[in-house]
Amino acid sequence: MIKFENVHKHYGDFHVLNDINLEINKGEVVVIIGPSGSGKSTLLRCINRLETISEGLLEVNGVVVNDKKVNINEFRKNVGMVFQHFNLYPNKTVLENIMLAPVKVLNKSKEEAKKTAMYYLEKVGIPEKANSYPSQLSGGQQQRVAIARGLAMSPEIMLFDEPTSALDPEMIGEVLDVMKALAREGMTMVVVTHEMGFAREVADRIIFIDKGQILEDTDPTEFYNEPKDERARLFLSRIL
Ligand code: ADP
Ligand code: MG
Questions:
Q1: pLDDT in tens, 86-109
Q2: Are strands 157-161 and 79-82 parallel, antiparallel or unpaired?
Q3: Whose CA is nearest to atom 25 of ligand 1?
Q4: What separation in angstroms does the CA of 12 have from each of 9, 15, 16, 193?
Q5: Which residue among 14, 16, 161 has the greatest number of ligand 1 atoms within 8 angstroms of its CB, and so is best to mutate?
Q6: Residues around ligand 2, an ion, CB closer than 5 A
Q7: pTM of this structure
Q8: What rounded mean pLDDT belongs to the chain?
């Protein structure tokens, strides 16, 4: 589903991704972990071409992402993304937030988009918030709306960039539960998170990245019990 082959990326002189090789299969849940500034967000953003790579090959769902012929809007329909800060439109209701892209990008009728939006709102557990504005919701609820908004496009892949790190502790669980359910349904997911409980429960693999390089690509049990890489060990000793 996702394949990085010798991918490099520079920001000016700064080598942010250094020879990334990574394959993610359909239905896999991959957790990316690593120190702040190591390139996790950049890696994720390359997958839906919010960032372009400088060198190498990146294929997503059979599409060579950086090919100039790629229709970027068409391509992005298949890749949903959830950010740390939910990025909801403040002047639109929850329902309108979720309906927007299906109407604009998928050309769905308002009626159909509304039905889909309600379906996903039920799924993330807050159908009663349909007509509320984002500011009337807790952080955890806003993030669940953001997930519903992503799912309403029926993507094949969902990317999550630290989806719980801006939340108060008591709200982290409700967002992780939605993500766990999604994982169990077979969604292909790439998740940047330091939530070890989530990683242990649903991740098929853990990718540890430091200074733009993948230093470990292993299963969660092995990673948390005995990481092979010295920097991974040091990192874990600091966050656990
Ligand atoms: P992480 O998500 O692991 O914290 P990022 O991928 O956000 O790391 O950033 C990796 C490095 O690249 C950081 O040092 C950051 O300052 C730098 N960086 C990120 N985005 C840009 C940009 N648009 N221009 C220049 N440098 C950037
Ligand atoms: Mg980041």
A1: 999 999 999 999 999 999 999 999
A2: parallel
A3: 11
A4: 9, 8, 10, 27
A5: 16
A6: 40-41
A7: 0.96
A8: 96
Atom of ligand 1 nearest to the CA of 11: 25
Identify the helix (H) or strand (E) that includes residue 18: strand 14-24
Index of the ligand 1 atom closest to the CA of residue 42: 6
| Ligand with smallest separation from the Cα of 32 | 1
Structure tokens at 152: 């309403």
Task: Report residue 103: phi and psi, to 5°.
Answer: -75, -45
Residue with tokens 């993030």: 143
Residues 6+ apart with CB under 8 A from 48: 60, 75, 76, 79, 81, 159
Is the CB of residue 118 less than 8 Å from the CB of residue 130? yes
Ligand 1 nearest atom to the CA of residue 35, by list position: 3
Using one digit for the tens of pLDDT, what is the confidence trace for 118-147?
999 999 999 999 999 999 999 999 999 999
- ipTM exceeding cut-off 0.90 for this assembly: yes
> What per-residue confidence (pLDDT) applies to 240?
76
Q: Measured from the CB, is residue 42 less than 6 Å from ligand 1?
A: yes
